[in-house]
């Protein structure tokens, strides 16, 4: 186990992954790291063409000042799916800002999926998140993010702290999606109908690939959701955005999984095979 990178005990962790298609197999050909980020043995639950990689953060949680970075590239024709073994836990800031910077790339005819399990933000967490995707003109991408504010099962609310998020997606050198915002705990956006509307769980799925038919979009919009849930799907040519607001992370996972199972075959040309780690 590496030692903390600074006097106040913060971790500076970086993981770089590279995937390449060799003889019909998407192989993990580059795996370098510094600090506590690792990837398990590559898995192939849906055949050789798609490599599943499970990213592990051994400390089990992120504290104030920790900085995590993941840089993953799927080369020409390769397909990689990145996930995590459990929920990410972002603890209180302790006077420091924590951060995560994800950079994903996919070459010609390639696809990359970012499907971690949910992120739980404890009260007093102060976090800056950046997510960048660079795609070749004919590459595909699906990413999902489930944010849980506070530990509702323990009666904890997110009353102090902040979460800053930036998401940028480019395809063929052109900007497809740019989104940024800051959610201040206890701020107006927490309760406003223009923000979270009082919900404690926010989920977003963004898919880029083959333009979906009206029937597929209608099927996504028709996914059954619990009462009191805000849910919708929007299509902008080759990009589909699915959003959900609710108070239950398990419900959010079920709905996002259902959306992924509809969009993945339509946009990436592959049936949706659920990563085994999600069932453990």
Approximate shape: globular
Give me the secondary-structure category: mainly beta
Cα-atom Rg, whole angstroms? 18 Å
Major pleated sheet: 10 strands, mixed
Beta-strand content estimate: 35-45%
Distance between the termini: 25 Å
| Average of per-residue pLDDT values | 92
The number of helical runs is 3
Q: How much helicity do the residues have? A: 10-25%
In total, how many beta strands? 17
Poorly predicted parts = 1-8
Short overview:
The protein has three helices and 17 strands. With 280 residues, it is mainly beta.
3D architecture notes:
- With 280 residues, the chain is mainly beta.
- It is 11% helix and 45% strand.
- It contains 3 helices and 17 strands.
- Helix 2 packs antiparallel against helix 3.
- The chain is globular and about 50 Å long.
- The N terminus is likely disordered.
Features:
10-stranded mixed beta sheet, 7-stranded mixed beta sheet, disordered N terminus, 280 residues, 11% helix, 3 helices, mainly beta
Which helices and strands appear, and what pairs or packs with what?
Layout: E1 12-22, E2 25-34, E3 38-39, E4 51-56, E5 67-74, E6 79-83, E7 88-90, E8 98-106, E9 111-114, E10 119-121, E11 126-135, E12 140-149, E13 162-171, E14 174-184, H1 188-191, E15 201-208, H2 214-221, E16 230-236, E17 239-246, H3 249-268
Parallel strand pairs: 1-5, 4-6, 5-8, 6-9, 7-10, 8-11, 9-12, 10-12, 11-13
Antiparallel strand pairs: 1-2, 3-4, 12-15, 13-14, 15-17, 16-17
Helix pairs in contact: 2-3
